[in-house]
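Instructor's aside before we start: the two examples that follow are unrelated to each other. I chose them only because their records fit on one page, so don't look for a connection. First example below.
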Amino acid sequence: MGVGQILSRIENVLPKLTQSEQKVARFVLSAPEEVVFMSVQEMANRSLSSSASVVRFCRSMGLKGFPELKVAISADLAKDQKSGYYDLNKNENTADLVDKILSNAVQSLRDTVGLLDLEMIEKVAHTLYNAPAVFAYGVGASALVAEDIAQKWLRLGKNAYALSDLHVLTMSMANAPKGSVFIGISYSAATKEVLQMMKFAKKTGLVTISFTGFGKSELSELSDFSLFTSLAPEAKVRSAATGSKHSQFFIIDVLYYVCASIDIEASLDKIQKTRDAINSLKRTEAAD
């Protein structure tokens, strides 16, 4: 997993940490410049925690240990000031709104890139490449991500589905061939319908992939593979979950290109066939 944007990651995942880990997190956020020169024991003493809590905190952040945390903090401090996340205020002018939305999108993508586990991306891409069928499911804004998955892998010649009716989805998954994949999408990792279908997919023998905001959850623990996007801080206005959508679509694009590159000649051939089919359909519609 990448170590970029670690301070933003800590800030956003703070509410999900244990009390002892939160002590460590708050100290890191309050004095990152000091942390890079500390030992584990010094860190434990200054944060009023324990060495074990410091190590657990590092692992909760997706890091191997305290040395990697210091490297990540050093990298963050060497960068320009982050763009940051901003909420909307009453009677704001359009120019300010454009700047804020752009800043939120850029920060979300930066944080997500910092979370990327390239080995996991490659494993998931090969799993999707070998799958006879792919089922993607999400609710609300996550349903748009599921549809994007289905459309992209249809272009690669896969039997890919983004079914919103749980009964139809259940029937389809029950008869899916061995090696088929279920992708459960929930930014909060707490959508009950997604969790329900993840459990059914496991019971049915499908390969399971969770796609959530960063952090441990029942959904990610259940799945064979876990994909994470950054967690943005809570905001009063979340118009169509814009920040999470940008990050989720970005991860899907990365997976799509990695999957397509496994056999680029075959992928390009299949993509061209779908393009030709759509163009033919448009010509027929125009003639009518």
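Example two begins here.
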Amino acid sequence: MAEQVRGVVARRKGKAVSVETVVVPDPGPGEAVVKIQACGVCRTDMHYREGGISDDFPFLLGHEAAGVVETVGEGVTDVAPGDFVILNWRAVCGQCRACLRGRPWYCFDTRNAVQKMTLLDGTRLSPALGIGAFVEKTLVAAGQCIKVDPAASPAVASLLGCDVMAGIGATINACGFDLDVVIDAVGRSETYEQAFYARNLAGRVVLVGVPAPPMKLELLLVDMFGHGRVLKSSWDGDCLPSSDRPMLVDLYLQEWLDLEALVTETIPLDDVEKAFEQMHHGHMQRLVVMP
């Protein structure tokens, strides 16, 4: 039976979000319903609210999430009810050219849940980054669920769904351990230009922050010729979720990574709009929603 849960919805561009009743269908083939335990507040969700990602409103916000698998659909074997998981933006196909080359982060045929969560009136919701996790329960493709050690704090584990993975992954998987690397974690034309000119002539620029679609970059072509070297983006840290997320959880549990220090405050679903306001004015570090 479909379930009714509370979730944070952005109905219109630039308008305050609201906590509304969300209808979550039973999982179909290859899908899973996950009870969300924690979801980090990320600037990308504010971009969704402001129409900076797409105009496919209404959005079910939240994507940096950890929780427990509640039910799975037909044919799902990699996860089971009761598994503690971190959610990925997408499930990879494992069969395309990128996957077969060992670069699944560039998968050409990624997928999310086929079914849509809706509002009570039947309006279909667009889940942020294919997840939609500012909600008590969400529907995803089962391949978006990565099992990790349940000893990890849900708040900490949620940050590995985006924030920490994007930063650490960009350093380890995209750049190696070179000293001539500049990472643009903001995703604005101004910061990318600064990054371009800040590194040395043999250096690399790695774009981690998500830019809004209208943003443009103007650089002198002669500077591209003289300073080009490597210019690349890093999606979710170019990670292999099935191995990298559990690895970071293990490093956290072994006290190699002090991830607890990153969680500055936990808040309920009803305070998400306040969190966005703090983020807009630069008055917050890392808040985590606990549905």
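Residues 175-179 have pLDDT under 50 and may be disordered.
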